[in-house]
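G., the chain you wanted modeled:
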Amino acid sequence: MTQTVPTALHAAIHAAYTAVTTHGKHLSSALEDLFRQVQPDEPTALLIRTTLTRAVRFGDLQGALDGTRDPGTGSHHLWLPDWLHQRLATSLGDRLAGFLDRSAAEAPVVIRVNTLRTTVEACCAELAPFQPEPLEAEAVRIGRPFGLFRSEAFQRGWFEQQDATSQRVSRTLAPEPGMRVVDSCAGAGGKSLHLAALMQNRGRILSLDVVPEKLEATRKRAARAGADIIETRLIDTTKVVKRMAETADRVLIDAPCSGTGVLRRNPDIPWHLSEGGLQELLETQRSILRLHSRLLKPGGRLVYATCSVLNEEGPDQVRAFIEEQPEFVLVDSWSTLPGEQDGDGFYAAVLTRSGAS
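Predicted structure as tokens:
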């Protein structure tokens, strides 16, 4: 029998739902605020998280509160604006139904074991109360995540939360110890940290972003992880990038995107994304790819990635870029739908540069 939310919590959850769906608040922030307000124990915290997430995912607050709305009610009830549903249908074709089913499911909690600090075996032993299940390489699925990030293992820098397919993107870049690597859209540094581990903390990683607060988070996480080779750099003008032309052995462009591949994890995305906003993202992706590709040395390797399943953000962008910049050659690409190998939906393209522009 489905457990329902106590009536005393309904008003707080209703306020959080409105903040997300009407006022543009991120679901993760709404949950954090709600937990601070309610101070729940583990079972109640799980119930609150599940209820609010389902309410946002299906656009049905009452159904989530009374327990009648859950993934088993059918993916066609996943809340999507018509324009986004149409674009997904165009990109996915007969895979649309599978995508919707998977996007209506709960996303697993997956961590990346930091091999600069420990091993997968030692980390799993330490995290035994959280029910760890090794997946691929350093990826571990967590069965009981409550309190995970208050654990001593996390404080010691033994792991970071990172989706399994996101980890595959870093491995696709194939960095080697001693290389100079640029993480062009580093954000809070999740992939930079993984790259440092893959490089055995030897070489240099430049983590670039346009948001100072994200780079500050990268520095803090790098210190905890023991990733000494990471240097952050704020992009406050295009000159920052142009001055580093043809200096990188590897370039990762994990471009800002619609996030359609991570709807399981972030069901609030359709509430915040507009058709005009998607067009702006497409222009941003084109601009970043044009500018940051200049960082790559001839003979180097560039990976362009998005956590999106829309063709216009993935293969279409890469095809247009290669037509414009013929010194770049597509040597490999892959894509996933949500749920494949416990990961999110991603697109990644591997490009090499045959000569200077």
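The first helix runs from residue 10 to 21.

Shout if anything looks off.
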